[in-house]
Amino acid sequence: MRRQIMRRQVLRRQVLRREAKLLGVLVSTIVAASLTSIVAGSPARAQGNGKYFAPKDQVIAIRAASMFDAKAGTLVSNAVVLIKGDRITDVGANVQIPEGTSVIDLGTATMMPGMIDAHVHVNTGGNTASLAARALRALANAQIDLDVGFTSVLDMDSRGSFYTVDLRDAINNGSVRGPRTQVVGQSLNPRATNYYPDNQSVRTYEGYTENKNVNGPWLARSAVREAKLHGVDYIKIYTTQDFAGTEHMWKPDATLVNSPSLTPEEVNAIVDEAHRLGLKVACHTYGGEGMRSCLNAGVDAPNHLLELDAADVKVMLEKKLPFVPTVDDLVALEQADLRETGGRNSRLKLLEQAVRRAVAAGIPIVFGSGATSVAIPHGKQAGQFNYYAKWGLSPAQSLQTAYLPAARMLNYDWEKHIGTIEKGKFADIIAVPGNPLADLNLMSRVQFVMKGGMVMRNEISR
């Protein structure tokens, strides 16, 4: 019997590998063939790699009434940005535009760096569809994010398999249009939101949640190594479960269940192994032992942290950890939480308290929406800035959450390439119709998007 089970597992892995290999071809051929460049007047180009790269010899100037300096948190009047190929060559209020340079005039708009969303789920269809269907849906959602000004994203869980690696690679090689992307692929996730029905007698022998057995530090290290071999940029773990016995999410006293999943020893092993291999680690956690194990282990991207207290803040400051609140995620859950607790509590209320505590202590807040479904849609993330402004950040600080703090949290020192409009960085530039420091709602009205020197959307330039 055991031999038959093992054989089924081997065959299943072989099928998944074959599907994954075919996925890159599917995304880069079928999708590329169905898309056309949205740059008005651009010449037809051969399909395949490099279709969505700016020409290396192009020289462009962008000027606007003002530019948001994401490092200083201030506006620069009458700014000009010079671009060659996909990189910025000069920027400032007094930059001279060389004769013969193609000029994009954004008029009264405010020019800004492309935003970074450090917590999305590009697949919104669960894990029941075919890999091809999931990849196509993921591509569509990634393009929605790009078109509203998020030129870089971190996908925080493919919900099974590693098709997001193929999506990332197709974007990186220019065969499809999309934001700069880093991915965790398939998470290491013994979490689950409720207990499983025992509808197969060999259920626990066939596999664990996400088919990864991380019961023990050495198995945890093995899972990290396997994920690395699939090409991920980040490892994602879930350290709090939403149920204990028949209690789900909320206890009778309106406090969170927060049943821990991974042990501190397992979390330490995952973080150590990931860092040893050049990967970073993200942690989904609400509170309790699970949250403390993530913070003490020094995960790179602590998410949610709903029960953050003074002692936890001290650990974060010592380890120089950021905080990814994922406001949109919890806004969508607010009504259900209030119903379950009789109006006494909600995850959004807890998040506000946690963010206020972190802001007061000077912990970097990183923009991460949690965009993942119809209820938490892609393309609507910018509304999150208003929550930050209500919870202790100034308008400028609220905007800054989507720039350098997010770029620093990404892997591979991406802060050297994105997050500000500076000489030498990628020409990832967006524009909004007015002053975003006076009206954060303008961030939901992005009208110009450039990624790597290539115009992806333009509704305002002359």
Write a structural description.
34% of the residues lie in helices and 19% in strands. It is α/β, with parallel strands linked by helices and 462 residues long. The chain has helices at 2-34, 131-147, 163-172, 203-206, 217-229, 264-276, 288-297, 310-319, 327-331, 334-340, 347-361, 384-390, 395-400, 404-409, and strands at residues 59-69, 74-84, 87-92, 102-105, 110-113, 115-120, 150-155, 180-183, 234-238, 240-241, 243-244, 247-248, 259-260, 280-285, 301-304, 429-432, 448-451, 454-458. Strand 1 and strand 2 (74-84) form a beta hairpin. The longest helix is centred in the N-terminal third of the chain and has 33 residues, at 2-34. It contains 14 helices and 18 strands. Helix 2 crosses helix 3. Strands 1, 2, 3, 4, 5, 16, 17 and 18 form an eight-stranded mixed β-sheet that branches. It has a three-stranded parallel β-sheet with strand order 6-7-8.
Question: What's the structural blueprint in terms of helices and strands?
Answer:
Layout: H1 2-34, E1 59-69, E2 74-84, E3 87-92, E4 102-105, E5 110-113, E6 115-120, H2 131-147, E7 150-155, H3 163-172, E8 180-183, H4 203-206, H5 217-229, E9 234-238, E10 240-241, E11 243-244, E12 247-248, E13 259-260, H6 264-276, E14 280-285, H7 288-297, E15 301-304, H8 310-319, H9 327-331, H10 334-340, H11 347-361, H12 384-390, H13 395-400, H14 404-409, E16 429-432, E17 448-451, E18 454-458
Parallel strand pairs: 1-4, 1-5, 6-7, 7-8, 9-14, 14-15
Antiparallel strand pairs: 1-2, 2-3, 5-16, 10-13, 11-12, 16-17, 17-18
Helix pairs in contact: 1-2, 1-3, 2-3, 5-6, 6-7
